[in-house]
Amino acid sequence: MIEKTYEVICPVCHKKNKVFVRLNENFNNREEVFCDYCGEKMTEMPAAEPPKTKCVE
To answer: Does the predicted TM-score (pTM) go above 0.90?
Structure first.
């Protein structure tokens, strides 16, 4: 598995979130990513398991 980290800004509260994603070469589904601060959906991205988020502001 490959682990990647992205920074995504929430479109609702405008807080910056670090998103930790695990990718598998053979199996990735579209997973929803939610803001760690307000809980709103930010985006979807391919991942092997549900991504983890951490608010950085």
So the answer is: no
